Amino acid sequence: MDRADAQDRRRFVTTEPVKSAAPAGMSRRRRRRLALGVQYALFAAVVLAIALLADWPQLRANFANLEVARTLFPDILTVGLVNTALYTGLGFVLGLAAGLVIALMRLSSVAPYRWFATAYIEIFRGLPLLLIFIFVSVGVPLAFPGANVPGGVAGQAGLALGVAAAAYMAETIRAGIEAVPRGQLEAARSLGMSQARAMRSIIIPQAFRIIIPPLTNQLVLLCKDSSLVLFLGVTLEQRELTKFGRDLAGQEGNTTPIIVAGICYLLLTIPLSLLARRLEARQRRERR
């Protein structure tokens, strides 16, 4: 084979177009779109089936009876909603104060303080809140004869909610304190500050700035947990939303009052949830 034939053969090999292999199936993007389409179709089918099979006149009569709903106002706002906010606020304040003390004890170098804080957190995070309400309403008078919780039902509700909330808030506050850079405390001590003053003036304010979103979520949980106040034996003027809706539902033989009470809970919890998300988003922006 001469040189000219070899060059022609190389030119033929290099200039011949390469045929791409045909795709074995659908692309990943198309498969993902198909899967999403199937999910949307199933969801739409379920919603349509529920809408067609539900007895809407019966649902409207038992859950959205406007005549029954009108009888709830304005008492459900001036009594039920106000008392719910009061019990929630008392529990949050007491839980925050006790949680801060327990968190500091949890971080203390004194072993008995740490043991007590650890035992408190584990016990009250493990107990159902209903048992705590029963203990406050029954156990306290038996343990301390003649002693009454200040504030009556409001005081008992705040104490039960606060005792339980303190265990959760203590862990939240402890995590916030540990999230503050260690150099902050060392710098404060190098300036001549005592341990207590450095914690009070520098560490704790920064920690609370970090834990505001989870504390807001805890406030939402306390708002819902305040429904257990009905086990304390409240009067008509001391009823919170759940007790108010339950009593009126029994009187009217209709569940509309419970639905209205649920809507009133949302009036408290949704703004708090939105606030918590906004605070979390702002913290993420500040970290960038």
TrEMBL record:
How would you describe this protein's topology in the membrane?
Answer: Multi-pass membrane protein
Where are stretches of biased composition, namely Basic and acidic residues?
A: 1-13
Task: Name the InterPro entries on file.
Answer: AA_ABC_transptr_permease_3TM, ArtM/GltK/GlnP/TcyL/YhdX-like, MetI-like, MetI-like_sf
Taking the record's annotation, the residue ranges forming a coiled coil are none
Q: Classify the main location.
A: membrane
Keyword check for Cell wall biogenesis/degradation = no
The ABC transmembrane type-1 domain covers which part of the protein?
A: 81-276
- This protein's superkingdom? Bacteria
| Keywords attached to this entry | Amino-acid transport, Cell membrane, Membrane, Transmembrane, Transmembrane helix, Transport
Give the region (Disordered) as residue ranges.
1-25
Q: Name one Pfam family in it.
A: BPD_transp_1
Segments traversing the membrane: 34-56, 76-105, 126-147, 256-276
Locations listed in the record: Cell membrane
Which family does the similarity line name? Belongs to the binding-protein-dependent transport system permease family.
Write the protein's name. Answer: ABC transmembrane type-1 domain-containing protein
